[in-house]
Amino acid sequence: MTASGHPGWKKILYSLSLSLVITNIFIVAKSHSDTPNQPDKNHNTSAVLNAIIEQVSLSDNIKGRFEQRKYIHILPQPLLSKGVFQLDKKTGLVWQINTPVSSRIVFDSAGIHQRQKGQAGWEISNERPGVAMIGELMRAALSYDWALLENYFFINGSINSSINDISETQGGKQQWALTLTPKETTLQKTIKYISLAGEQTLTSLILFEVNNDRTEITFDML
Fold it and tell me: Most buried residue among 33, 95, 150, 187 by CB atoms closer than 10 A?
């Protein structure tokens, strides 16, 4: 039987790709300075970010469903996964993958922890240089913490009304999009840029990697 014909091949590939993504991010974080750069001042960007904050739904507890597609340039099809997440400012971020494999990743004050099929997996302590940054950046994107994101990324964005959907325009909600480009060379070694898009909530996040792989995540907030 060929590898592509193996019934569990996609699950194996997905598990491998998930491990590679976490490993790549950790390698970058490990070499990253604990003291981030001071954010650059851009009045146009600030106006866009302020306008987004005025219309998004802010909460100390954010939860929803996600659908993730991981595009690896050596594979003909993306690796699809689905699950749910919950972000609590006090307890951290829980990223629960339900299909094609069950995997639970927790980002909290202690570090990053993974459980699979109810069994403890790997964990990385926040005491290791840069690990805390990983959880911070994920939480910042989901909670619209622009100040933290500006420490690590140049941010460019736009916001406009949808002329194709009358109900959107009448409701006063505008579509917005942001592009985050890494400031430091350590992040630039892995991340080309990140795209965020949404309206009243964040609806998509796309991470473009230097090696031409990319991760697309769509969100359905609850």
Answer: 150
Instruction: Identify any residues that bridge with 147 across adjacent strands, giving them in sequence order.
Output: none
> Position 157: which residue type?
G
Which residues have C-beta within 8 Å of that of residue 4, sequence separation ≥ 6?
none
Give the domain ranges of the chain.
Answer: 8-221
CATH superfamily ID and name for 8-221: Lipoprotein localisation LolA/LolB/LppX (2.50.20.10)
pLDDT digits (tens, 9 = 90+) for 71-104: 998 999 999 999 999 999 888 899 999 999 888 8
Taking the whole predicted model, whether its pTM rises above 0.90 is answered as: no
Q: Are 218 and 203 in contact (CB under 8 A)?
A: yes
